[in-house]
């Protein structure tokens, strides 16, 4: 059967050799910009320059800088998919660790996104994909036997651990601020020296006992995951009073 309707026209993806803009492409460009620049450097003018267009062109797709950040934050949330989680006894600790490692990698690909969204008062977890991720993570903790309110708290604590670690621990190593030298981001902080043993006995001992530093960010993160898993294990209905890391590798075995 023929139709009298004219064929639909697709918007060209390129014009004069340059990609055409959409609201999503502008948001993704902002995410890419954050991968190479600091959050404060993201402005309508700087992004337009990076895209090779005039700032006025961006206003056809986003209202202002806050709207730009909102779009970027929504794309950022939607791009992460929750890995499979296994609540089975004996398997859930590594499943939780794997999820946290994956989320950490996602945040490290777009450094500063969380801090920028908070500074601009962009509501967190507003995208349907992120809401489904949060709901599934709550369900994972509920499947371990935690009451629903505690399952929600465990979900939020897991996310906060990852986000906080990326913002405060990973960022200085991934992209050292210009005003810091190599010594300032070394594994052992420069202010941690054996001097002043009387005033700072434990820090002084630490400097003497660990001359090569206190560990890489990855080692710190694994320690944090052990603490997270251990705390959750201690709250499970069948938790042993003396549950803790096993003797072989520091891994929790609830």
From TrEMBL:
User: Which residue numbers delimit the HTH tetR-type domain?
Assistant: 20-80
Q: Name one Pfam family in it.
A: TetR_C_1
Q: State what protein this is by name.
A: TetR/AcrR family transcriptional regulator
Q: Which InterPro entries match?
A: Homeodomain-like_sf, HTH-type_TetR-like_transc_reg, HTH_TetR, Repressor_TetR_C, Tet_transcr_reg_TetR-rel_C_sf
Q: Which UniProt keywords apply?
A: DNA-binding, Transcription, Transcription regulation
Q: Tell me yes or no: is Calcium among this UniProt entry's keywords.
A: no
**Where is the DNA-binding region?**
43-62
What is the organism lineage in this UniProt record? Answer: Bacteria, Bacillati, Actinomycetota, Actinomycetes, Kitasatosporales
PANTHER family reported in the protein's UniProt record:
HTH-TYPE TRANSCRIPTIONAL REGULATOR RUTR (PTHR30055), TRANSCRIPTIONAL REGULATORY PROTEIN (PTHR30055:SF151)
Q: Does the keyword Ribosomal protein apply?
A: no
